[in-house]
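User: Please predict structures.

Assistant: First:
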Amino acid sequence: MSALHPFALRTTQLLFCLLSSCLLSHCGRNSKDPQFTDTKAPGPTPEGMVWIPGGQTLMGSNHSPHESPIHEIAVDGFWMDQTEVTNAQFAQFVAATNYITLAERTPKLEDFPENLRASINPADLVPGALVFSPPATQPRTLDNFHQWWRYQPGANWRHPQGPGSSIENRMNHPVVCLAWEDANAYAQWAGKRLPTEAEWEYAARGGTGPKTYLWGEEDAKRVEFANTWIGTFPVASGPAASLKGTTPVKQFPPNEFGLHDMAGNVWEHVADWYQPNYHAVSPRLNPPGPKTSYDPNEPGIQKRVIKGGSWLCNPSYCTGYRPSARMANAIDSAADHTGFRCVVSAKKS
């Protein structure tokens, strides 16, 4: 196997579920039903959004150390995009602002950790993004994601799989190949913001109390509710094989709040910096996320949280489609399975 492109060295390991944390487990149980504080929206609901009434829920799980401990949170009400931001919506933003995404910019040597710079060939510093590329045969183990990911020069939101690919017939699909700053730039332009991790997880649970999946406790039912990997990962087989990538928004049923694709399709950027132990110190009311990023595995790389899983998630490798699932993602990382949605705060009287 050829060496991974140097531009991907700082990001690839940050994008994908760790094998050690990809075994199913169940959230803790609490008999207390959700209690809502502001069921009525304080004003007109913006187009394409739904009102999420404030309330409390249990956040986190016993699935892995960085999802624990299970703890109670409470959030104020807010509006949230009913779907992930689509290619059509992002195209409007770019047309209005001439914004250039990170994957479209030529990387600079100083963008890389100092200890890697000597090993980088300047000729390899070309714009691009990470693209899923399944191997020809099933790997013996799933502990080396370099077997199915590659850095693809020329891949960006307009060309998610690289030159020759197009979004022309996918304008109602989630926009992908965006880094965190790209998602944040769109949110600011739209007069919105990225949700906190607590808001995102609260909204994903739909106000129905703790459960392992949005739809209940049976993983097998995900085919009815989410765009996830079907077949043997990462080499799909059979007519139902899931090499199709993203699906149009609203293709699967919404949750109880009216939100689509809070499980699967694409991972979603949220506002929070990543720290593995934040759940242990999180305040109960409107947790804002930590003030800084820290991952003990790679302390020199700035990371934020992504939520929700993607079309690549599968119980044999990654169950990121659980509401409690969270993953660390480098802030300068762009891949063809990551997008976002926005929220709007309710104005305080």
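Second:
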Amino acid sequence: MQAPVRSAYDALVARDALTADPAQRDAAQELDRVLADLLAARPRRGFRGLFEKPAKVRGLYLHGEVGRGKTMLMDLFYEAVPFRQKKRVHFHEFMDEVHTKVAAFRKSPKGSSDDADPIEAVVKPILATGLRLLCLDEFHVHDITNAMLLDRLFSKLFAGGLTLVATSNVVPDELYKDGLNRQLFLPFIALLKRNCVVLALPAEQDYRRLKFAGQQVYAFGTGPDVKAAMDRLWLRITGGDPGHPGAVESIGRSIPVPAMAMGAARFGFVDLCEKPLGTRDFVRIAHQFDSVLIDGVPQMDRTKSDAAKRFILLIDSLYDRGVKLAASFAVPLDQLGRDDKTAFEFQRTISRLTEMQSEEYLGKGLRDAVESPN
């Protein structure tokens, strides 16, 4: 396997899906280094391999401002990793899972003993699955409960042979900057630097904003002309990639994604608002994609009260995160809500939809998620 991440990146440039950027190319090469080291460190097959531990592989902490291509590079890397012992998740969601498991252990009979170690109880089953690679999107630390947990958590994960690849908007030395009792967090920064190469991504421009520059992101009406307009916008957002089916993992189940590519997802209205989904699911979607296209948003009268409520929650989640929205609507925005049960809430939704098509909104980056352990 020769430089698969760099090859995939060069292929995107060759078909004009991306503009060649030296910093992105350097990052692709470093990701290829991580992948090559992981493959070289695999235990041998057969009886001897049962007693071998994989060699430790130094990971990567890739940082840069929003829209510089970090998520796209992580996509290429994760797809190139050929083994199953890998996991990719948003940092906030990963820590949410950790806190949930810690809370559950403390409530268990084992957790009540004086020598109980909840971190060990969380890490042990993770490593027992054989997980070798953990990819964390948008690594950031604002919450003191996470800050005080990370050193012990990752000390055990790294000691168990786990390799970390992470993206972030800040350098490690600025994590939890000005946070309460920050001196207690500093050992984690040192640990992170020892176990990951730290690489800046000073790309030349915000590529995410270029996707939407000068575009009409909403279409109104039905029929082939509206669909064609959405198809053209989708291809612009994805750099010409038609996309492939995928899924978003949420609370132990999978939400089907009809098409996803280059950090964007395309859904039909029915896929999101006429299925049993809730706020937690929509937040997961907002964390996983920087752009979402929704086809066929209908007028919502009393016969669609449940769908209208989900649509309100969906727009709130996308808006709070700063996700870019493209959509086709059967009627103008001011005619969307025709259900008196949701009339008040829908006023806010219409206001947000109006703002989400503005140049100002489209020109902003994603907003940090608020860390809130269970």
